[in-house]
Amino acid sequence: MLGTIKPEIKDQFLAAVADYNKSQKCYTVTSIPGDRNLTFLQNVTPMYAAKNAPTIMYTLQEIPDMADKVMDWKGTKLASLAPSGLLAAANIGGKQVGVPSTAEAFGLLYNKKVLDEAGVDPAKIKTRTDLEAAFKAVEAKGKKAIHFSAIWWSLGAHFTNIFHANAANTHEGRLKVLDNLAAGNAKLSSNPVFKNWLATFDLLKKYNRSEVNLTDTEYDASIADLTSGNYGFLFQGNWTEPNLLQATPGGKYGIMPLPISTDAKAYGNDSIPVGVPGYFMIDKKFASKAQQAGAIDFLTWLYTSPKGQHHVADPATTTGGGMGFIPVYKNWKVAPTTYMSQVIAKFVGANKTLEWINTYYPAGLQEEVGKVSMQQYFTDKISAADLATAIENAWKGKPKTWRGEKA
């Protein structure tokens, strides 16, 4: 397998691989480290050219690019156990090219202890105005309001999704926004949702008390800040929870919506983005039938066996633990127990969720927007008008993969 799902859970994933390898004598799974400085396609394309492709791969936006190279999951046990709604993004032309790993949520994370001491109730933050008041309340107690991360993937995939998920209140309406961007017809500077989103971006920049860091080391710095007890908020996702709990066992870290409007009734103000961060694919061009069968067996063991489910859902600990994933497959036996996962379950149960439109971004788009225009705006190198133009230019001419166009 290429990689370890995510670098943040490398040790926990490799522990699962080791247990699987010990559980049977037919197959051996190994992890091939990729180059984190390269995109998924930059990693796998040379491997395919050398006829040495990994058997198991894991990705999201690049799924359309891989559809002709990987097997169809239809008819397998895992595909039958996955909710149909979570399979949709990996169904290309009727072919089920991937199965989901988990559901993830992102938004404003918070250190519950810091907010409690400041008298801030996240459930009462309904508007951007309320959010600024919360920032001020945290700082009045001598703490720092927020660590706003400048890491490119957080800006390019997750923060941009806050705009796209709020851009319309229907799925088709949101895809039409992408249509207009790809066609070069969008005028973001005059879009009221974009202007609200940008005002929220500015608010987070204003109250950001962390040192701006544009490199990948920023992730570890953000974890250290939130767990230090000196920061109230962090814009990130629940994939941070294993790292947060490893740093502070017994800590309580929640998640709340990032309101982009001053109107409490505005669409999306009370919801968090929830979606599938990636899908497992199995090579069909170079993998033998036995390798394909082993890949299916490993992933089925991981998500259906008691031991595998513990590796998936148990929280991380200072000595290892599990991956802390939110279960998405039917007949799941191991319930998540962490505070953040319970908060997310409440949002999901109340249907207060936003779509992951970033699932539909063309390959490379989030890197282009995140590493260039978003980071430039974060560091005050370009104006708001420049940012709007840069995002428009990044989208213009891109294939409408969400409409079935070839990448």
Inertia-based shape = globular
Taking all Cα atoms into account, the compactness measure Rg is 21 Å
Helix content: 40-55%
The CATH architecture of the largest domain comes to 3-Layer(aba) Sandwich
Low-confidence stretches: none
Q: CATH homologous superfamily of the largest domain - what is it?
A: Periplasmic binding protein-like II
Mean pLDDT: 94
What's the CATH topology name of the largest domain? D-Maltodextrin-Binding Protein, domain 2
CATH class of the largest domain: Alpha Beta
Total number of domains: 2
Class by SSE composition: alpha+beta
Alpha carbon gap, first and last residue: 24 Å
Number of DSSP helical runs: 17
Compact overview of the structure:
The protein has 407 residues and is of the alpha+beta class.
Describe the structure in your own words.
The protein is an alpha+beta fold and 407 residues long. The protein folds into 2 domains: 145 residues, 3-Layer(aba) Sandwich (D-Maltodextrin-Binding Protein, domain 2), CATH 3.40.190; 221 residues, Periplasmic binding protein-like II (D-Maltodextrin-Binding Protein, domain 2), CATH 3.40.190. Helix content is 44%, strand content 12%. It has 17 helices and 13 strands. Strands 5, 6, 7, 8, 9 and 13 form a 6-stranded mixed β-sheet that branches. A 3-stranded antiparallel β-sheet has the order 1-10-4, covered by helices on one side. The protein has a two-stranded antiparallel sheet with strand order 2-3. A hairpin with a 2-residue loop joins strand 2 and strand 3. The relative contact order is 0.19. The model has no long low-confidence stretch (mean pLDDT 94).
